[in-house]
Design a protein that fits this description.
The structure is a single chain. Helices cover 24% and strands 25% of the residues. It has 9 helices and 19 strands. The chain is globular. The chain is of the alpha/beta class. The structure holds zinc ion. Zinc ion binds next to loops.
Length: 320
Amino acid sequence: MFYFERDLFIPEIDLWIDSKRVKPFGFISHGHTDHIARHKKILCSEPTAEFVKKRVKSTSFHTLKFGEEHPIGDYRISLHPAGHILGSAQIRILKNGQSLLYTGDFRLGNSRTVESFEYVPSDILIMETTFGKSQYRMPPREQVEDELIELCASLLKQNKTPVIFAYSLGKGQEALKILSDAGLPVAVDEAIERYVSVYKENGVSFGHYETFDRYDFQGRVLLLPVNFRFQKFFKNLFNGYTIYLSGWGMDQWAENRFRVDKVLPLSDHADYYQLFELVEKLKPKEIYCTHGFPQFVQELKAAGYQAKTLENSSQSELDL
Ligand SMILES: [Zn+2]
């Protein structure tokens, strides 16, 4: 049913999945740049199409609503929320009652700007396992949100400038919502603000915020893209306190690695325990892991699952 050689491919329907190389027909799971290419025809969710249009020159799109079934030959295809960023989709591919599910980047549980993850039973599960080590147990989301709000409020009180670095798509809008809903004065950079309209069109509302202005930013929380942390302007900011939002904040020395004062583990990926939770709920016949640590595959095997790393020449042993 599938074949992997640098990219995931469904030969019978000529569909490439999250390929970074341009293909005639490609599914894009979500709008992060490491998953997109300007395929001739792109299959994706509606919000993802809007994000991709802002990132690549125009091409043709086939969008599906979540849960809508699309037949291609003997196959039926549907997209389901992955809980990673707005519009992020898992793809289920069905043939003769047997199914393959590709999660793409995913996270279980709720967040403020993302559709909640949907559990979709499947025979073959291809899953993203970035945080597949037991040390990665993310604190509850509300706790991280509270910590972020309290830290920023207390810095402002001390006449310091909180400078938050977040990915311009996904984490940036999530942080903007958390901070603006809390009534904090926020100045957001254009690189993050340019995607906000897509969120609003999809029913996500935000509190008051301003556009970041290099010449007038005192008294605000600054919300900026991650690459800004290398700019001298922010490194040398008088009374500045830098914060990075990442699941890797669980690591010791995360502050040294990201060169900031504080890393808060606001993650848009499943942690180790959520990875196991997914597998235990779906009980797939075969599991293929992408990203993460080889040890996780061994742990799945020890738990009785038929698991492998998705690698070159991987293909399903199930005859679908
Ligand atoms: Zn992603």
